[in-house]
Fold these 4 entries.
Entry 1:
Amino acid sequence: MESASRARQEDVPSRVVCRSKMGLGAALSTMIMLLLNPVQTLVAQDSSIHVQQVTISLAREAELPARDAGTLFAIEVIEGQAVSTNDVIAVLENEEQLLQLQASKLNLQIASLKAEDELPVLSAKAQLREAQSAKTVKEVALKIAEAEALSDSAVGIATAEVELRKHELERAVAARSSFKGSISEAQIDRLKTSVAKGQLEIKQAQEALAVQRMKPAAEKASLNQKLEEIARYNTVLQQEQKNQLIAGVNNQLQVNAVEMAQLQLEQRNIRAPFDGVIAKIEKQAGEWVVPGAPVARIIDLKRLRAEGFLSASDGSVALVGKGVRIVVSSGGTDIALLGKVTFVSQEIDPVNQQVRFWAEFDNSELQVLPGMIASLEIQK
């Protein structure tokens, strides 16, 4: 105590001397402020700022709440247990959510099969191609029928043949009249029969021509039928394509339903938001919880803060990002750690004219714990 008193007494005059040009009232105010805050006395040098006392505190902690209402099914951790990000801390009863997820997955399988089924579309396309091919055949048949309807060559040939036979008959009759016995009666009869047959052939050719002239109308009707069939298959194809599109949309809806069911199931889990240690278990298995109710508390010991106070003259936001050296005394051993200033308050305490600040540092080796007292040096 005496050595501390002497240190304070030696430090106060040095500060008063540095402000020798100040008025007496200002000097007295400075002395009073220093006496009121002996632990936080700062020693400012050209290259650094020394803070004699800072407190080690947590940089990150969280209350882990329930996101749904329900009964706690299980607590998966114990107090003091180290956990990693996304580890399950506790689980609410979730049988209903599991069943809903299974049903959503089955619905998705059905929707996927329908969305992937291309047979109706392929069948409609095949029928359409077949109808289009038949239409082409009918178009060719129509052209042939129209050409045949315009051609009366068969009638002409048959008529010419009859005329020829008539001439032969007339010559035969004339020859017989001139030279008896030159042409037999049997030959005359054959020629007459040939003429009669030719006349029948003319009639047959005329009837065939009449039929041929009716064929274009029949082929047109058949072609129109194929055109209507093509139109029908086009409609069927469009409907099947639309059905396939609807099946794809329904499949996506089922995908969303599965994701929603998975989300609802996940809502029943309480997970660690970061690597840390379970500091406290707030609830026990079997208890009813409501949304927002804290179930556990997690703290991060691998990154800590050193919190303290600076004089208003030294506590500038320009210090943010500056390196610090923190010294913690533990069991008679000094532990030195490096960090950076991450916050300097812009509010000045009206009583002691100080500002709050803190520096964060890596504590991956778990060398220090929150609540320890340390000293700190800020590199300017």
Entry 2:
Amino acid sequence: MENIARPRGTMDVMAPDVFMWNHIEKTVRAVAERYGFSEIKTPTFEEIGLFKRGVGEATDIVQKEMYSFTDKDGTMFALRPEGTASVVRAIIENGKATDTLPLKFFYLINCFRYEKPEAGRSREFVQFGTEMFGAPSAAADFTVISLADAVLRELGLKNVRLHINSIGCPECRPVYRAELVKYLNAHSDQLCDTCLERMNTNPMRVLDCKNESCRKVAEGAPRTIDHLCAGCREHLDDLRSALDACGVPYVTDPHIVRGLDYYTKTVFEFISEGIGSQSTVCGGGRYDGLMEELGGPKMAGIGFGMGITRVILAMKQEGIEAPKLGVPELYIATMGRAAVTEGLKIATELRSCGINAETDVVGRSLKAQMKYADKTGARYVLMLGDTEMEAGRAQLKEMATSGQTELELGEIVGYIKERYGR
């Protein structure tokens, strides 16, 4: 019978890679909570209209990449391609928009996009994201960017650089858009078919195209930061002042535009050197009109999404290793039915105290058990057989020194706890 393979563009995560995943998730939770963000969990799928309105009808995500399906009652749903729209929907639906501001949430979610699988890009991916609502100041921008920077630094990443830009607001962007479209029309013969379509729907996306010919056109394109209104200019200056004052290095990059329609003013990316074409490990920005667009009150917003797979690629490229599974404090080698039961009892008592303990459940020979104990790196090994059970005493061996201590069976848990600091 033919084996069933995992779907293309998905992954199985197990040891040793799962240690890296767990380490990253533990780190992002700790940092987010330190910044006062609380976790939010939203459905894996939503009505498709949420993403059409929130992400943008003209985006590649909505037009080409969403996994959608029709429910039995005829409702169109989509697996979430990103997290922000769902968070906004949850805030509105659950009446959180009237809570004390700012609202600060974070999430670790699985997202789904139909894309060509490659290193750092898959069809199901895990994203760490943050959202802050009700804070229109550049100080909020800095706080969110600082949170992302703190996560990356605490994970040990050094070759990741912050790139920032401003794409303006509804007041100044139409002027810029007109200038950009005029420029792109003059160079339309050098643009790919996708960018020719984007010229009339979302022309700033042309600046983000990876096609070599389009990149050359983008290099000479008008820059958003040269067409900002006074308010957007002041906002960007305040953000840069905060980054400078707090020692967060950055590059002002006019080519950072982000791919979703809801962005305004600040946009940013953390870009890793050396992990190939998918070098953006974190991206985000400000979306001051999104809450209102989805039926809620007018409320400023800012956040980011960080791809866990790309963070792992960056960590591996820099040779960063995650903490591995803790080794057993005690391995109990058993021979005989009574010894097996006693071994399970001792292991259970130690585990209930938070101490890693193992005993044989496979039925190995004593010699094989000792080899296994050595492989696990256990600090102590206890050998239990008929002789030890009858005497009520056993030899506890410290593997590093080969020293042995004879103990009453009832003393073993206390002895290990004392040395473990419990």
Entry 3:
Amino acid sequence: MLRRARISVSLVFLIHGILVSNWLSRIPAVQAKLHLSVGILGATLLATAAGALIAMPLTSKLVGRFGSARVTRVSTLLLCICVVLPGLAWNTPVLAAALFAYGAAAGLMDVAMNTEGVAVEAAYSRPVMVGFHALFSFGGMIGSLMGSLAAGYAIEPQWHLAAVGGALAAASIPVCRHMLVNASEPLPDTSSTRELLRPLIGLGLVAFCILLGEGAMADWSAVYLGQLSSPGVAPLGYAVFSLSMALGRLRGDWFHERLGSVATVRWGSAVAAAGLGIALLADGVPATLAGFACAGWGFSAIFPILCSVAGKKAAGKPQAGIAAVSATGYLGFLVGPPMIGFLAQASSLRMALLLVAALSGLASVMARVARINSRDVLPGPRVP
């Protein structure tokens, strides 16, 4: 039963990654279809963030009432539907509304599936959370490849996204059948909002620093590498970063189990900071790519661990802790890229990206906020 639940949650994370990356890969096609300028497109894409940031706190209440298993099932189907909507938009306001709905569904699914992941991890009594996020990363790679093929064959976004959404909606029905329903039953509200949020403030700040770095790498790594080399080499920056992060997540639970939450967050942040420092201060493409790979590896396990710790610290309401930390981290992911752009305009892109290295170092210093208990390990018997 427990093994089936772990497989079920893993596949949900995979589905989430495939859905999100399929949409992201078709943004250029939708931009061309609606004749949007870069500025208008950027402003419209903020609707996705608005939807997610509004939905995440609401998800906490829904999970508390209906349980994470049921909300995960419903939100997965909802995201499969909403991923189709941006491809159907015929003007900018409709696209903004579609992206708001898509962002809300994605935020809903994100909190629900992470809450279910925390329940499975608690049942295993050993770290498994980072492995779930590894499946999300590999889902992102699969979805990006699917989107690239669809664009290469000039398939219209609405047909491509409808096919993906329909296929994954059908697949999600059997996938979600083995969730840990009893592990996600609502618990009584015995704590105030202040008592709930106090232990999460530090976790939220670390999540903000780490996801700001991930967002900056997504938007600016190719631009930075393009300044050092040819346009053909530029995309390798984010490709190396993403692959290193995915591979790091495959081993993240191993490190988490042996080192504990605090040490894994501390050393992961330090490796990311050092890697970015190497990438930005050393000359040459090989050194830059090596630094980006270190950053990806360092970042890989941190956010999943923060979600896991937040779920355990949230006074018997794991969904509320995950929602708070996820929303704060997601805010960093959103504000990071434009912040880097403004700083680059004022100085240089290299100097602006050094801020990411500095924030990664700050996360390393703050790693003690990820402590769960005196031993900083998950107690109880091991489950294979």
Entry 4:
Amino acid sequence: MDRWVRSCYKKKSGYAFAKKAEDIAREYGIDRIARLASNENPEALSPAALKAAEEALRTVNRYPDERVNVLMNALRAHYAHEHFVTGVGMDGVIETVIRTLVDPGEKVAISTPTFSFYALAAMGQGAEVVTVPREADYSVDTKKLIKAAKDAKITVLCSPNNPTGNATGIDDVREILEGIEGVLFLDNAYVEFSETDYLPLMKKHENLILGRTFSKVYSLAGLRIGYAFTPRWLPPWYSRAGTPFTVNSVSMAAAAAALGDTAHAERYIAQVKRWRKRFADEVKYPALPSDANFVMIDVSPHKSDEMVEELARKGVVVRSCRSFTGLEDHYIRVNVGEDWENELFIAGINAV
């Protein structure tokens, strides 16, 4: 009965999912759907990752390595960084970091509009959530963020940001790190598609955690594996707070192998950069500059959900941005898919 449900979940809805391609296909009788709503890599996982996953399947009668050594060693070799944590997607890393560091009633500051799960995870830990709106162009006013987050245990910043696509400069991130008293969780889920490298900041700042994921550039969204670069002090405490055996044997094997297949990643990065430009040049509605594998498009005078429905009728699934706190209700988000999907999207939206 709902009287036993925590009040915080009664006051706020959960994560808003995009409309399912299968539902659209059934509703409109369309056989081939362009899936451009979830920021996925349309290319199948690399052959090396597939082989490693198949081999790991033979061992799933046993619990996975709780130390995730296969993946940890691959990460250390690939990035020349020593300290990492892992989780079930970026979501799992975020949730465990908050669980590790935040006591009920402590503050978590979030730069918005952005990915909604940060607030949901903080709320689930009993934190006080403080949202700090971005500027009109969706850039971060560092002084305003520092002032609001001065006494926060964790400050969350997504760069490149979801759903706006823009990246925050390294100097701005450094200013934030030096201005706050707590930890900065910098979500870098889309950083491979940008020209910005935040990793050098780890050498001087003990209050920085860089979150990453294998869901995007490495085509492993279905295996749900995230990781983070951390300072030396965090992993022992993270392990103490974390759920046992969160990363399964198949996921860790596939992810470790995927790191070595740079050609696979580079193909999609090149595809993203080419199509971001075409979206900006050829879509008749304004596309915001993006450093991610998606673009956010202003479809006014249409509303977000209206445009999503219009495109669904044409066999294209995109994401309505109506649910993003602090974002006006006339934006959609579209990720770079296969060539035919992107072409269908351009033709479809230009016909509205």
